[in-house]
Design goal:
By secondary structure, the chain is of the alpha+beta class. It is built from 4 helices and 3 strands, in the order βββαααα. It has a 3-stranded antiparallel sheet, with no helix packed on it. Strand 2 and strand 3 form a beta hairpin.
Length: 129
């Protein structure tokens, strides 16, 4: 019995044990096309040799350093690639793990901007439903 809360509470999903390219293999050996993988899997596939090698090399150097205190060579390089030649005044990148974190950060940055600009009463945001 699984202790994980899955999306379907009536039956546990198969346990994925490996992946290669667009294919996933479950514990019984059954293979299926991964039609639900995230953005990285969708464009790179499972077990891409160059991606795996880069991940292993990074882990050998540094697994994690909190961005509130440290920067990392990989983050600096990615920021240069993303905004180093961008038109329109884009000069910096702020890295987060998800869209919801990006939205939260954008709201906080906008709020901080107006506090720093001496406009603390500007507290409303426009959003779509």
């Amino acid at each position: 019995m699984s202790r994980v809360v899955h999306r379907n509470l009536r039956e546990a999903p198969p346990v994925a044990v490996s992946g290669s390219g667009i294919m996933l293999r479950d514990a019984s050996g059954h293979e299926v096309i991964d039609g639900s993988g995230g953005a990285a899997v969708a464009c790179l596939g499972h077990g891409h040799p160059r991606v795996t090698a880069a991940m292993k090399a990074q882990i050998d150097r540094l697994c994690y350093a909190h961005t509130a205190i440290f920067s990392a060579e990989s983050a600096e390089h990615l920021a240069d690639m993303l905004v180093g030649h961008a038109p329109g005044g884009l000069t910096h990148a702020y890295f987060v793990s998800s869209g919801s974190e990006a939205m939260e950060a954008a709201l906080k940055i906008a709020r901080q901007h107006f506090l720093e600009a001496g406009q603390p009463r500007r507290t409303r945001f426009i959003a779509r439903r």
